[in-house]
Write a structure and sequence with these properties.
Transcription Regulator spoIIAA; 38% helix
């Protein structure tokens, strides 16, 4: 049902194309379980097909609340402008904001944790 990969330390979860009302609970729970198993890695949920119904949006918004409780950052990537507007209008604003992006690359860049700068030795101070 759900597929996932890692990109730059970010868990990327792809929703199936045929999300129905009966799938909402299983999808949101599945996303949250993957997020918990890979914590503290941030999560990007991909919605590749336009979600004209509210089922995919509902599943993602619920998963966002679950991820917020786990302390895991989450955002969404979807090319559909209407889907992005639905997600923004229905996301829970009491938790960490749900980032909504037009591409997976932009979403991954938004939540990726930057690499730590190289350590500098204290005895390398110019004298």
């Amino acid at each position: 049902m759900l597929t996932h990969t890692f990109e730059n330390g970010v868990l990327v979860v792809a929703l199936p194309a045929d999300v129905g009302v009966g799938d909402r609970s299983a999808l949101s729970t599945g996303i949250a379980r993957l997020a918990g198993a890979h914590a503290p890695a941030p999560v990007v949920v991909e919605i590749d097909t336009p979600a004209d119904g509210a089922a995919a949006v509902s599943a993602v918004v619920r998963a966002h609340r679950m991820c917020a409780r786990l302390g895991v950052a989450m955002c969404v990537a979807t090319p559909g402008a209407a889907t992005r507007r639905l997600l923004q209008a229905n996301s829970d604003t009491s938790a960490a904001p749900l980032g909504v992006h037009a591409s997976t690359a932009a979403a991954v860049a938004a939540v990726a944790v930057p690499a730590a700068p190289p350590a500098v030795r204290g005895d390398a101070v110019p004298g």
